[in-house]
């Protein structure tokens, strides 16, 4: 499958978000991964719908909004209205998954579902036919710059075997040095935060990530 790079603005300079979104788009990224954290579901706070709305006019990237928040159903409409294209919710934070999937669909957005490293793939198997993308976390959600947990790639392999055409995203600890193995495991949408924005040449990192065999 075609490889898509989704730079995570969590590691960007928040004072220059628009500029950095334009830069990664020029460098060949197709998604912009937007990490939303609430200080409850994860021990960190990032940004809300107003930032997504402010950024929207500067970018034609697919806004890939990763909700690491409690009660995501309270905020889905606001993120949809702000300009999200894909809204991904954590299995661990949702009590009525079918209802949440329906809510995102009613807003006309693509639906993603995600699991933390300790959650087995089996937990989300009942929902996969209802979503557009599955995000397999390869770090504990909350912070950029952590190391990829190799054992999580086993979930990617298992999922790809069962779903040859599904968008499978991997998030956490992906670098130029391990992106080939993440892609070979079966991920076609690959998030990279610190690898891209921590570099002096983010554009070069994105092209290397797109082409690394
Ligand atoms: C972690 C976030 C990630 C993070 C990845 O909770 O979901 O998207 O930005 O950062 P890196 O690529 O630095 O591991
Ligand atoms: Zn993320």
Structure description:
The chain is of the alpha/beta class and 213 residues long. The chain has a single domain (4-211), classed as TIM Barrel. The protein has helices spanning 17-26, 49-55, 76-82, 97-106, 153-162, 179-185, 194-197, 202-211; strands at residues 4-7, 31-37, 62-68, 86-90, 110-115, 133-137, 167-171, 189-192. The chain has an 8-stranded parallel β-sheet. Helix 5 links the parallel strand 6 and strand 7. Helix 2 runs parallel beside helix 3 (76-82). The radius of gyration is 16 Å and the shape is globular. The model has no long low-confidence stretch (mean pLDDT 98). It binds D-xylitol-5-phosphate (DX5) and zinc ion. Zinc ion binds next to strand 2.
Give a quick precis of the structure:
This protein is an alpha/beta fold.
Keywords:
8 strands; binds zinc ion; binds D-xylitol-5-phosphate; single chain; 8 helices; TIM Barrel; alpha/beta; 213 residues; eight-stranded parallel β-sheet
Small-molecule binders here are: D-xylitol-5-phosphate, zinc ion
What would you report as the Rg, rounded to the nearest angstrom?
Answer: 16 Å
Q: Can you tell me the number of structural domains? A: 1
The CATH architecture name reads Alpha-Beta Barrel
Helical proportion, percent range: 25-40%
State the major sheet: 8 strands, parallel
**What percentage of amino acids are in beta strands?**
15-25%
Low-confidence spans: none
Q: For the residues shown, what is the average pLDDT? A: 98
The rough form would be described as globular
Structural class designation: alpha/beta
Question: CATH homologous superfamily - what is it?
Answer: Aldolase class I
Distance between the termini: 14 Å
In DSSP terms (H or I, runs of 4 or more residues), the helix count works out at 8
Report the strand count: 8
């Amino acid at each position: 499958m075609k490889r898509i790079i989704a730079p995570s603005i969590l590691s960007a300079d928040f004072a220059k978000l628009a500029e950095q979104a334009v830069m990664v788009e020029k460098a060949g990224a197709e998604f912009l991964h937007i990490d939303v954290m609430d200080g409850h579901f994860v021990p960190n706070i990032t940004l809300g719908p107003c930032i997504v709305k402010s950024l929207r006019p500067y970018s034609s990237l697919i806004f890939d909004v990763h909700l690491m928040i409690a009660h995501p159903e309270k905020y889905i409409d606001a993120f949809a209205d702000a300009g999200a294209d894909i809204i991904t919710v954590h299995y661990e934070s949702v009590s009525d998954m079918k209802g949440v999937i329906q809510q995102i669909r009613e807003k006309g957005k693509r639906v993603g579902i995600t699991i933390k490293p300790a959650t087995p793939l089996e937990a989300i198997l009942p929902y996969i036919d209802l979503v557009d993308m599955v995000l397999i976390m390869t770090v504990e959600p909350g912070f950029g710059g952590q190391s990829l947990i190799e054992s999580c790639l086993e979930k990617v392999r298992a999922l790809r075997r069962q779903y040859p055409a599904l968008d499978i995203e991997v998030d956490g600890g992906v670098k130029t040095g391990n992106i080939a193995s993440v892609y070979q495991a079966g991920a076609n949408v690959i998030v990279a935060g610190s690898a891209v924005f921590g570099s002096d040449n983010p554009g070069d990192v994105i092209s290397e990530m797109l082409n690394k065999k």
